[in-house]
Predict the structure.
Amino acid sequence: MCKAFIFDLDGVITDTAELHYQAWQRMADEEGYYFDREINEKLRGVSRQASLNIILNGKTISEEKFETLMTRKNGYYVELLNTISAKDILPGIESFLLELKARGIKVALASASKNARPILHRLGLTSLFDAIGDGWSVKRSKPAPDVFIHAAGQVGVNVDECIVVEDAEAGIDAAIDAGMRVVGIGPDERVGHATWRFTDTKSMNLGDILG
Ligand code: BG6
Ligand code: MG
C-alpha cells in the first residue's frame, strides 16, 4: 500500500549539483583549497556543513571562519539559483507528480537543503506539494532518517506506506532507516541498495513501482 511519495529535491526534481559545484569551486579557489568534480560527487545529498568538512579534508579552521565560508558559498549558490526556472525540472518529473495527484497519493518533499522552498517556487512546483521538509525542518541531516519521518508526519501517513525517491547514497540510507521503501535514481554503485532503481528520472515509471 502506498499513500504518500516523498521526494528528494537536488538530483531528483532538478539538477542543482552543477550549481553547488560552481559555488563551492569559487569559494575553494579563493581560499586555495583543492576541489574538483570528483570531490563534488561526495557532497551529493549531504548538508552544507558536512560538505565543507569534506572539502577541508582534515584541515582545521576556526568556527567563525567555518561559518563565514558556508555563508559565502551559499551567497554564490543563491546568485546562481536566480537562473533556474520550470525549464530545469528534470524530465518526466512533472507528469509523475500529476499522476500521483490524480491517484490521490500525497506528495511531500524531504530535502537537506535550506534553499528548498525558493527552488520549488522558481520551478513553479510548490502547489503540487502537500508538505515540505527541508534543511530547516530537522537538526540531523541525511543519512539520519529525520527529514523523511518529519515529511511523513506532515502528510499524516505511516512510514511503511511512504515511498521515497532519492538520488544520493546518504538519502537512500536515510529512507531505509526511516522504514520506507525507496526508488533510487542513478547508477547501481550509488543507489543499488534502493528497493527499485531507475537510471534517470525519465525512465521512472509509477506502474513498475506500484505493481
Ligand atoms: C542537498 C544537496 O540537497 O542539499 C547537497 O544534494 C547540499 O549537495 C545540501 O549540500 C544542502 O544544501 P543548502 O542549499 O542548504 O546549502
Ligand atoms: Mg539529491
Remarks:
- The two ends are 10 Å apart (CA to CA).
